[in-house]
């Protein structure tokens, strides 16, 4: 798996090449500090911008942002240092920038992955479903009337245990509700086949 850079990110890396090569390791270190520390590093950024004679906004929104996003996205994809190196070189990033970035990623890869894991919302995941149809065939007040009801047993993962354990949930569902759920799922499936939905899925896959 390789890391794909957007045109804006490529432009940001191009801006980095206009800065002295000796500051690249410090910029990578500052970008990493933004990710790992909850403390504000405004003074550090302002000092670096003054020394480099560039605007603070340019340094923050361009250089530091693209470096931090590169580290995060690499950790999201669990890239190896070799994959990251190949990805950046394929996108035309200078070796003088690639080297300190890959070194920083290699040294802090486990920490970055841990940050992503803790910041990601853990949702239950579907494992299996069993169902049973029950029918009330009559009562004292209603004769010759069949009232169907569906009892479902859902086995889902438990996010409290990182989805490694499962729990069972029972739901009663009448025919009208079951029909509504079925129609909603069919409508969602048809929506996924539209051009707009496919485009959104591709963009989300590219980001994630």
Please outline the helices and strands:
Elements: H1 7-16, H2 24-36, H3 42-52, H4 56-76, H5 81-90, H6 95-119, E1 126-136, E2 147-157, E3 166-174, H7 175-192, H8 195-207
Antiparallel strand pairs: 1-2, 2-3
Helix pairs in contact: 1-4, 2-4, 2-6, 4-6, 5-6
* Contiguous helical run count: 8
First CA to last CA: what distance? 12 Å
Total strand segments: 3
The value of Rg in angstroms is 26 Å
How many domains, in number, for the residues? Answer: 2
Question: How would the global form be characterised?
Answer: elongated
How much is the average pLDDT? 81
| Low-confidence region ranges | none
Beta content: 5-15%
Explain what this protein looks like in three dimensions:
The structure is a single chain. With about 210 residues, the chain is α+β, with helices and mostly antiparallel strands. It has two domains: about 5-120, no CATH class; about 125-205, no CATH class. It is about 60% helix and about 15% strand. A three-stranded antiparallel β-sheet has the order 1-2-3. Strand 2 and strand 3 (about 165-175) form a beta hairpin. The relative contact order is 0.09.
Keywords, please?
single chain, 208 residues, alpha+beta, 2 domains, three-stranded antiparallel beta sheet, 8 helices
Describe the structure concisely.
With 208 residues, this protein is of the alpha+beta class. It contains eight helices and three strands; from the N terminus they run H-H-H-H-H-H-E-E-E-H-H. It has helices at 7-16, 24-36, 42-52, 56-76, 81-90, 95-119, 175-192, 195-207, and strands at residues 126-136, 147-157, 166-174.
């Amino acid at each position: 798996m390789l890391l794909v850079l957007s045109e804006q990110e490529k432009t940001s890396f191009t801006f980095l090449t206009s800065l002295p090569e000796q500051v690249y390791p410090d910029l990578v270190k500052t970008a990493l500090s933004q990710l790992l520390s909850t403390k504000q590093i405004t003074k550090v950024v302002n000092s670096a911008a003054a020394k480099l004679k560039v605007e603070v906004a340019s340094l923050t929104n361009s250089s530091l942002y693209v470096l931090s996003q590169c580290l995060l996205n690499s950790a999201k994809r669990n890239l190896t240092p070799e994959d990251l190196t190949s990805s950046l070189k394929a996108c035309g990033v200078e070796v003088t920038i690639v080297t300190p970035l890959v070194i920083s990623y290699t040294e802090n890869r486990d920490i970055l992955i841990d940050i992503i894991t803790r910041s990601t919302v853990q949702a239950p995941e579907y494992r299996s479903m069993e169902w049973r149809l029950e029918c009330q065939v009559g009562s004292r007040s209603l004769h010759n009337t069949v009232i169907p009801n569906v009892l479902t047993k859902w086995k889902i993962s438990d996010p409290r245990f990182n989805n490694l354990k499962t729990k069972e949930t029972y739901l009663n569902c009448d025919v009208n509700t079951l029909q509504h759920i079925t129609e909603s799922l069919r409508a969602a499936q048809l929506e996924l086949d539209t051009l707009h939905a496919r485009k959104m899925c591709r963009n989300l896959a590219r980001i994630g």
